[in-house]
TrEMBL record, chain A:
Family per similarity comment: Belongs to the cytochrome c oxidase subunit 2 family.
Species for this entry: Poseidonocella sedimentorum
Keywords in alphabetical order: Copper, Electron transport, Heme, Iron, Membrane, Metal-binding, Respiratory chain, Transmembrane, Transmembrane helix, Transport
Full protein name: Cytochrome aa3 subunit 2
Lineage of the organism: Bacteria, Pseudomonadati, Pseudomonadota, Alphaproteobacteria, Rhodobacterales
InterPro entries xrefs: CcO_II, CcO_II-like_C, Copper_CuA, Cupredoxin, CuRO_CcO_Caa3_II, Cyt_c-like_dom, Cyt_c-like_dom_sf, Cyt_c_oxidase_su2
Catalytic function, reaction form: 4 Fe(II)-[cytochrome c] + O2 + 8 H(+)(in) = 4 Fe(III)-[cytochrome c] + 2 H2O + 4 H(+)(out)
GO CC terms in record: membrane
TrEMBL record, chain B:
NCBIfam families reported for this sequence: CtaD_CoxA
Family, as annotated: Belongs to the heme-copper respiratory oxidase family.
Pathway in which the depicted protein is active: Energy metabolism; oxidative phosphorylation
Source taxon at top rank: Bacteria
One Gene Ontology term from the biological process aspect of the record: oxidative phosphorylation
Entry's EC annotation: 7.1.1.9
Bilayer disposition of the protein: Multi-pass membrane protein
Database matches in PANTHER family: CYTOCHROME BO(3) UBIQUINOL OXIDASE SUBUNIT 1 (PTHR10422:SF35), CYTOCHROME C OXIDASE SUBUNIT 1 (PTHR10422)
PROSITE patterns the UniProt entry points to: COX1, COX1_CUB
One of the record's GO cellular component terms: plasma membrane
Keywords for this protein: Cell membrane, Copper, Electron transport, Heme, Iron, Membrane, Metal-binding, Respiratory chain, Translocase, Transmembrane, Transmembrane helix, Transport
Name of the molecule in the record: cytochrome-c oxidase
Organism: Poseidonocella sedimentorum
Pfam families per UniProt: COX1
TrEMBL record, chain C:
Segments passing through the bilayer: 7-29, 41-65, 77-99
Keywords of this entry: Membrane, Transmembrane, Transmembrane helix
Domain of life: Bacteria
Organism this protein belongs to: Poseidonocella sedimentorum
Name the UniProt record assigns to this protein: Uncharacterized protein
């Protein structure tokens, strides 16, 4: 199975593609530098003490154990508070996206109180505009983490957590569930696509209305299999089904990754996924469709890939 | 108080037995050694068993690192990997770190403080078997292919029956709770031993610093373990009985579990660190050749770490969406704990400068500890910053941090301690040459493994993932970390080799081989199972350095109290908890199987719960209860006096607040109060965070709630009067009041149950918690009733002589605490009624 | 009370004061920021401030008027324990003033 993820710009807290990540990164560098300096100082002190013959001095303990830490910690706490105010300050974001964690994928609703546009496993953000992400869980605790853009926030059953993020670089970033959530926890990632605001509006508009129609005979055959094989009972494809058990497939072909951010989206991987999902993602609710004939599988894959 | 001049038969001299000192303290031979209650035997068993768990958990860690060595690896499947990392954390935290340190404390504390044994030797044996059986239960899950796979933190709802329908979670909850009994009993035992049995003249200010570390640690265990025990019991009740403590649909909250878990989990880190730091503070002066610099600072630092570490728990929950004011509070407290830690580190550094340090193997490990732990402390301060924590939490950065703190702060000092105290275990020294190899392999391997993980985490790699895709930037880092882990493992393997090699070929250890200052080196290391012929008066914190008379003569000729005392009983000196002045002769039990049978009964009870065979469960409970009764069914010894030498005459077993049994009861009450407080915390938490659902609960009945309160007051008051009369030696009145206490206890328990009749425990989490509180109080009331009847039965059977009021005195203290719990519970019921009426 | 007992109390006492103060502040924040919404931010600040002044006074006792007699080690331990816990009380209180709401 090909799992090279060159398709993403990054999943890295040391890059800054969002306001939260950038401010935290600043804090990280300062704390790291101070930490290394203090470490070297203390080790130097130990080396000196090893050679010293004059005996210990009380002021070492007072200075090194009380005065210096208090000053350093006060400075750290102040810096940290400034950053925290900066990150937690945006309470009135113009956009709202609701993300619900499920074992082991992500249900996404844009503008939940308005148009309620649904998608899965991919979150599109407008460049430079604050977005409030409402985090929920449908089963166990998950955690929403896109290191390149912002710190993480947990998704807890019975609660709605809010995380406000502002993406500052366009591109495709990888996020991943950061709270252990069961068998396939390592296979629960997602894509974050940052688009310029104009493109973002267009993207939202494209989520309205029916999915792309099947054009070629193979695609039409694929759409029929989608219904006859029972996929339709769980998966939503706009215009065909409103089922909400599995991920929304209305624009599956437009995603760069398959299986919640895990494998590159291509014909081989998609066919392998349908035929053998139990092996690729143990614990997923979807059964493996290894009884589909070769031509049927190819048709189904062709149609799914055409949904963009 | 009657004074006997000659040992009378009833005073406890066992007729017809050989009464030489050595014979009395002899370790039973052959398979009967399992019945030994000596702290030397039990302490070593804790250490050896803990080390075996360490090796098992270490192999699991190697499996983890082997799985992660390359991206997309299929060495382990997902399920196995989840089991492996869960068991690695569980074994290391619960079955290795705490028990092995407690083992060292159990072994060293009496030797250092000048006692012939721990005060409650049978409790030590009981605790050990609970630990062993609990550990076996947890490990046996592998045999049933049901190893826990929900993480060592067992977060709900993943660990509830909805998402873990098999019994893997029950293995964890039941086995670990069982093993925790050992930790808590050891805590009570150590508190009492440190406070009540020290050498004459050893005031708290003259106590070796190790004992301060252990004393504070023991208090922390007594208060810190109960939240998890309560959490585990609630979760098991949710799984078995469907009580919705953590179910948001019924007004429960998954975050309540996290609060309870981390209320335990954060202090736990300090519970692991402090004893190890105490070992460093003990070994360092030996190799520097000068006393610990800044004893007063160190005491202040230990005390403040002990307290402040309880105010940090929510920094494990920064990403759960707590209010920002809470984040700010916990962030502030988390940074502040760096101050006492810094004080302590600088005490060590100042000590280094006080003499001429010798670079022995233990010293190497101390230096390694300083380097690694300081770095771990610094990353800990980083993690206290909320925004940084949001990035680093649950990433490999935290994995790196916690291993720096735990391996640096605990494993390195522990290996130093192995080399330092090895003569106590085998009579032989470990190899200095191999020791250096062990150290460098471990040090280099450790840093290769974990230093890089800081970077891996910041590069976005989350924890607990069995596999990761190629090309995200984690490949090389993981490869190097895995290689490092093999180097670390090679160091540990070399240590194991060194141990077995030294057993036959190591040089025999001379008396006080390192030139140490503390009393555990008074005797030559190759000793039989006794500690002190005479307990020497101590007037220095470094007795072997400052009191030359101790090493001038053969150890068994060293002058001390109780040197020639021949009662045919195991005895040690009881002291005033603060000043260390000798107060009484403390009679200790001889080898017995009873505690082991009690632990086996409990094991049967827990095991049968796992297998859902409830009649067997009841049988186990009955066995345990019977064993406890036999345990306590021994003659009271108070009311006798003895000449202990050096012009001192002391009574046997004091009837006083300072009596060891009473201090033990107070310690136990501390644990019970912490359990009760954890339940009250749960109640208030749910009431506060889930007001709508809490309001739907049917209110408790007003009149019975009031009655329960009054009856609770009666329990407490009767308890108070019992204490009063017992202290005055008016045994008849004390006994009468003890029975009245029991009647009041019965009444209050019944009224509490009556008050809660309308409350359906399955409908709301709030109602379930009220029932849990009532259940907990009821168990305590049952203990009061059982105890009162038991005392009466002993009197009737002549096990308690006239004038002996200690049993009723101890019961009274327990009853006072229980009465207080009843009053508080009744008040909450009443508040529920009034609140319900107001709506 | 004998001097050694008094100095011991001065070592442990500030810790107990800190624990009570921490619990108070945590309870106040929980009262202000949970769904039940029992008090508002000014109320939180006022009661938290009062608790802090009180706690600080008690914690500083062994620092400002150290026990006169007793083992010197314990008197020194009492001094530093008082100081460390005073700082910790201040830090807990400081956490209340940087944010004026529960949001986040």
């Amino acid at each position: 199975m090909d799992s090279t993820l060159g398709i993403f710009n990054s999943q890295n807290a040391l890059t800054d593609a969002g306001q939260g990540a950038a401010q935290t990164l600043w804090l990280t560098w300062i704390m790291t530098a101070a930490g290394i300096a203090i470490f070297v100082l203390v080790m130097g002190f130990i080396a000196l003490a090893w050679r010293a013959r004059g005996g210990g001095r009380t002021w070492w303990i007072v200075g090194g154990g009380v005065v210096f830490p208090v000053v350093a910690l006060a400075a750290l706490f102040a810096a940290s508070t400034v950053v925290l105010r900066g990150i937690a300050g945006h309470m009135d974001a113009p956009h709202v996206i609701e993300v619900t964690g499920k074992q082991f994928w992500w249900d996404v609703v844009y503008d939940p109180e308005g148009r309620a546009l649904r998608d899965s496993n991919e979150i599109v953000l407008p460049l430079g505009e604050p977005v409030e992400i409402r985090l929920k869980s449908a089963d166990v605790i998950h955690s929403f983490w896109v290191p390149s853009i912002a710190g993480k926030m947990d998704m807890i059953p019975g609660r709605v957590n809010r995380l406000t993020v502002t993406a500052t670089k366009a591109g495709r970033f990888r996020g991943q569930c950061a709270e252990f959530c069961g068998l396939s926890h390592p296979l629960m990632a997602f894509e974050v696509v940052v688009l310029p605001p104009g493109d973002y509006a267009a993207f939202l508009a494209s989520l309205d209305g029916e999915a792309r129609d099947a054009v070629t005979p193979t695609e039409r055959r694929g759409a029929e299999i989608f219904q006859s094989a029972g996929c339709i009972a769980c998966h939503r494809v706009r215009g065909l089904s409103e089922a909400r058990i599995g991920p929304d497939l209305s624009r599956l072909g437009a995603r760069a990754a398959l299986g919640a951010g895990m494998w590159e989206m291509n014909t081989g991987n998609l066919a392998g996924w349908i035929a053998d999902v139990g092996d690729m993602k143990p614990g997923a609710q979807m059964p493996s469709y290894n009884h589909l004939s070769g031509p049927d599988l190819r048709a189904l894959v062709a149609w799914l890939e055409s949904l963009t | 108080m009657s004074v006997a001049e000659e040992p009378a038969p009833c005073s406890g001299a066992r007729m017809g037995e050989d009464t030489t000192f050595e014979a009395v303290w002899d370790t039973p031979k052959g398979w009967r050694v399992l019945s030994s209650v000596s702290h030397r035997v039990v302490g070593r068993r804790f250490i050896y068993t803990g080390f075996v768990f360490f090796l098992i958990a270490g192999v699991l860690a190697l499996l983890v690192r082997t799985q992660l060595i390359v991206p997309g690896n299929d060495f382990l499947d997902l399920e196995t990997y989840n089991q492996v990392f869960t068991m690695h954390g569980t074994l290391m935290m619960f079955l290795f770190a705490i028990p092995i340190l407690e083992g060292f404390a159990v072994y060293l504390i009496p030797l250092m403080l000048g006692a012939r044994d721990l005060i409650f030797p049978r409790l030590g044996q009981f605790g050990y078997y609970c630990y062993l059986f609990g550990g076996i239960i947890v490990l046996s899950s592998f045999l049933f292919d049901a190893a826990p796979d929900g993480g060592w933190f067992m977060y709900v709802p993943l660990s509830t029956t909805d998402f873990t329908p098999d019994i893997s979670a029950d293995f964890w909850l039941i086995g670990i709770t069982f093993a925790e009994i050992a930790s808590v009993t050891a805590a009570v035992e150590l508190i009492t031993a440190i406070l009540c049995a020290r050498a004459p003249g050893m005031s708290l200010a003259k106590m070796p610093i190790f004992a301060w570390y252990i004393l504070i640690t023991a208090f922390m265990i007594a208060i810190g373990f109960p939240p998890l025990i309560i959490g585990s019991i609630l979760l098991e009740a949710e799984r078995l009985l469907g009580l919705p403590f953590f179910d948001p649909l019924a007004g429960g909250d998954p975050l309540l579990w996290q609060h309870l878990f981390w209320l335990f989990g954060h202090p736990e880190v300090y519970i692991i660190f402090l004893p190890a730091a105490g070992m460093v503070a003990t070994m360092l002066p030996t190799f520097v050749g000068a006393p610990l610099f800044g004893y007063g600072f160190a005491v202040a630092a230990v005390v403040s770490m002990g307290f402040i570490s309880f105010g940090l728990w929510a920094h494990h929950m920064f990403a759960t969406g707590l209010p920002i004011l809470s984040l700010s509070l916990f962030s502030a407290a988390s940074t502040m704990v760096a101050v006492p830690t810094g004080v302590q580190i600088f005490c060590f550094i100042a000590t280094l400068a006080s003499g001429r340090p010798r670079l022995t193997t233990p010293m190497l490990f101390i230096l390694g500890f300083l380097a690694i732990f300081v770095l771990g402390g610094l990353t800990g301060v980083m993690l206290a910053s909320v925004p940084f924590n949001w990035q680093a939490h649950d990433s490999y950065f935290v994995v790196a941090h916690l291993h720096y703190v735990l391996i640096g702060g605990m494993v390195f000092p522990l290996f130093g301690a192995f080399y330092y105290w090895a003569p106590h275990f085998s009579g032989r020294m470990l190899s200095e040459r191999l020791g250096r190899w062990v150290f460098w392999l471990m040090f280099i391997g450790f840093n290769t493994t974990f230093l890089l993980m800081h970077l891996t985490g910041l590069r976005g790699m989350p924890r607990r993932i069995a596999t990761y895709p190629e090309g995200i930037g984690w490949d090389r880092l993981n490869m190097l970390s895995s290689i490092g882990s093999y180097i670390l493992a090679a160091g540990v393997a070399l240590f194991v080799y060194d141990v077995f090699r030294s057993l036959r070929r190591g040089p025999l250890a001379p008396r006080n081989p390192w030139g140490a200052a503390t009393l555990e080196w008074l005797y030559p290391p190759v000793t039989p199972g006794f500690n002190f012929h005479g307990i020497p008066p101590v007037h220095s914190r470094e007795p072997l350095w400052d009191q030359p008379e101790l090493l001038e003569r053969e150890a068994h000729e060293v002058d001390g109290l109780m040197h020639g005392l021949r009662d045919g009983r195991r005895e040690t000196l009881g002291c005033d908890p603060v000043t260390g002045a000798p107060l009484y002769i403390l009679r200790l039990p001889h080898p017995t199987w009873v505690p082991m049978i009690a632990a086996a009964g409990l094991a049967l009870m827990f095991g049968a719960t796992l297998a859902s065979v409830y009649w067997l469960c009841a049988l186990g409970g009955v066995i345990a209860l019977a064993a406890f009764a036999v345990w306590a069914w021994e003659p009271s010894d108070s009311g006798v006096e003895r000449d202990v030498g050096m012009g001192t005459t002391l009574p046997v077993n004091l009837v006083d607040r300072r009596s060891h049994t009473h201090v033990g009861i107070v310690g136990t009450m501390l644990v019970l109060m912490a359990l009760f407080a954890s339940l009250i915390f749960g109640l208030l938490y749910l009431w506060n965070t889930q007001p709508q659902i809490a309001a739907t609960m049917a209110a408790p009945l007003a009149v019975p709630s009031g009655l329960a309160g009054i009856a609770g007051l009666a329990v407490a008051l009767f308890g108070q009067f019992t204490r009063h009369f017992a202290l005055q030696g008016r045994t008849g009145r004390a006994a009468l009041l003890a029975q009245l206490t029991a009647i009041a206890a019965l009444l209050s328990g019944a009224s509490l149950g009556w008050a809660l009749l309308p409350v359906d425990p399955r409908a709301t989490a709030f109602g379930a918690t009220l029932w849990a509180i009532a259940g907990f109080v009821a168990i305590n009331l049952c203990v009061v009733v059982f105890w009162a009847l038991f005392n009466a039965a002993r009197k009737l059977a002549g096990r308690v002589g006239p004038g002996q009021s200690l049993p009723d005195f101890n019961l009274a203290t327990f009853a006072k605490g229980t009465g207080l719990m009843v009053i508080i519970s009744a008040a909450f019921c009443l508040a529920g009624t009034l609140g319900g009426a107001a709506q | 009370m004998s001097p050694i007992r008094r100095s011991l109390l001065c070592v442990i006492g500030p810790g107990i004061v800190w624990a009570v103060h921490f619990t108070t502040v945590y309870a106040l924040i929980s009262a202000a920021c949970a769904p039940r919404d029992l008090i508002d931010y000014p109320g939180l600040l006022l009661s938290g401030g009062l608790a802090t002044v009180f706690a600080l006074g008690l914690c500083l006792l062994p620092v400002l008027c150290p026990p006169r007699a007793g083992p010197p080690e314990l008197i020194r331990a009492a001094f530093w324990s008082g100081l460390i816990f005073s700082l910790a009380v201040l830090a807990n209180a400081g956490a209340l003033v940087f944010f004026q709401s529960c949001g986040g």
